[in-house]
Amino acid sequence: MPQANWVIVLHFLVLWGTVATGFMAGWRLPISFVVAVPLGLLLWAAGFLYNLNYARQFKHALPQHRAALARRGYWRIAARTTMNVGIGLGFRSWLTLVAAGLLIPFYAAAARRRRLYLDYMRTGMLSNAFPDRVPRR
């Protein structure tokens, strides 16, 4: 799904840009380096493994269950946010922790677009083809 590439680019630029800016500006968390790095690495690994588990479940699910898994995009959002918080703690950057929170709406928009795309691929019609399927805003 090439439409989601903007989220990947945005995620990469914002996350690593905030890490670099935090280092250059000296905006660091008042946590010891000895505590922050293992805790950040542990959080990042937990989010990464959670994301891999979700991807494996989606890959091996029956087609009728894939639609239900696609509606649970918040699992992937939680995994990515956990990874971002782990990076923020590992590098002891306030700015990265703030960016992790600000990226959540962009992940939600990408998850919604992915769900609509997978729904279209499964049914062959757009989700707004029937009025009862139009998402309420």
Overall description:
By secondary structure, this protein is mainly alpha-helical. Helices cover 75% and strands 0% of the residues. Helix 1 runs antiparallel to helix 5, helix 4 (74-90) runs antiparallel to helix 5 (94-102) and helix 4 (74-90) packs antiparallel against helix 6. The protein has helices at 5-25, 33-60, 63-70, 74-90, 94-102, 104-123. The protein has one domain. The chain is elongated.
Q: What would a concise description of this structure say?
A:
The protein is mostly helical and 137 residues long. The chain has helices at 5-25, 33-60, 63-70, 74-90, 94-102, 104-123. It has one domain (2-133).
The backbone outline, from C-alpha atoms, is: elongated
The chain-level mean pLDDT equals 80
Task: Note the total helix count.
Answer: 6
Helix content: over 70%
Order of helices and strands: HHHHHH
- SS-derived structural category: mainly alpha
End-to-end distance: 24 Å
The strand count comes to 0
Q: Point out poorly predicted stretches.
A: none
Rg calculated over all Cα atoms? 18 Å
Number of domains: 1
Biggest β-sheet description: none
Residue share in β-strands: under 5%
How do the helices and strands line up, and which of them pair or pack?
Layout: H1 5-25, H2 33-60, H3 63-70, H4 74-90, H5 94-102, H6 104-123
Helix pairs in contact: 1-5, 2-4, 4-5, 4-6
Features:
137 residues, mainly alpha, 0% strand, elongated
